[in-house]
Amino acid sequence: MALPRITSPHAKGGNRTQGVMLQVLLATLPGVLALTWLYGFGTLINLLWASAVALGCEAAVLAARRRPIQFFLKDGSALVTAVLLALALPPYAPWWLTLIATGFAILFGKQLYGGLGQNPFNPAMIGYAVVLISFPLVMTSWPAPHSVGLLEALQRILGLASLPDGWSQATALDVLKTNQSLTLEELRARYPGFGGAGGQAVGWVNLAFLAGGLYLLYKRLFSWHAPVGMLAALALMSLVFWNGSGSDSNGSPLFHLFSGATMLGAFFIVTDPVSGATSNRGRLIFGAGVGIIVYIIRTWGGYPDGMAFGVLLMNLAAPTIDYYSRPRTYGHRKAERGFKIGE
């Protein structure tokens, strides 16, 4: 009988990986509810569709590799990838966009490297980056807050109904990036979605994901180092380069902390234990690097938000960060630099 080759993590008392994944899914509920309340049923449809695609792709690869399908699907990692990706996509993204993003996330971001625990990059961010680069117009077209019924939402996702005039609007980050002549007060008056901390709607969404992230911290599913490092670096960068409320403003620290995918990225993406740094000091450096890159792309780059690129670039740097931030072995002193003549 061929025994399944099961890699780490190992734990006594049941499937710890499955328990962790369920807690992460539970923590996304405030964000899911906020998105559904603001934009209608589009987010829920995307979640179900992305989950079905993720499970189907994972099962197909496991069958091709002759691995136990039920065992690996039960760990919940594919569902977490699908849910995080669906939450990052626009609420009424076309069905084919979600299919491409989720398929790339599972096939090229996870299974290509051997499955859970062996992927050097965050799978959800790989899928997101692929569709962002390939279909930038669709990815940056978010709807204005509307209450949309289930049938109407399904028709728009399937492409069976055209979008009415005024349905979509630029995000707060996009409005600020493309602004050339209006002050922040004038932007708030002209673009209702720009008002408040990072935009009224997206500000509430970020608060919801912040609540879910604090729940995960309370449950000690990850340490505080990576999210605090990212949020502190993003706030510091926006404070240093904040040039008031004129037409050339880059946005305040509060604006950047509650815009885009900041809180989703800080508590659900940079805390990935596989593709991130491993030591506490390394996690601080990793999170800070993501925050700096996100601000650079938001302010001077070609995309309104840079969360996916920031995470993937720091995934590349994670092995180097681990090498230089290894904790000193207990009972040993630090190695002295140089050597004495005659040694």
UniProtKB/TrEMBL annotation:
Compartment(s) where it occurs, according to its Swiss-Prot or TrEMBL record: Cell inner membrane
**GO CC term, one of those recorded:** plasma membrane
Root EC class: translocase
Q: Where are the transmembrane segments?
A: 20-39, 45-64, 71-89, 95-113, 125-144, 197-217, 224-242, 254-271, 283-301, 307-324
Tell me the membrane topology, using the record's own terms. Multi-pass membrane protein
Give one Pfam family.
NQR2_RnfD_RnfE
Q: Which InterPro entries match?
A: NqrB/RnfD, RnfD_bac
Q: Which GO terms describe its biological process?
A: electron transport chain; transmembrane transport
Q: Which family does it belong to?
A: Belongs to the NqrB/RnfD family.
Q: How does it assemble?
A: The complex is composed of six subunits: RnfA, RnfB, RnfC, RnfD, RnfE and RnfG.
Q: What is the protein's given name?
A: Ion-translocating oxidoreductase complex subunit D
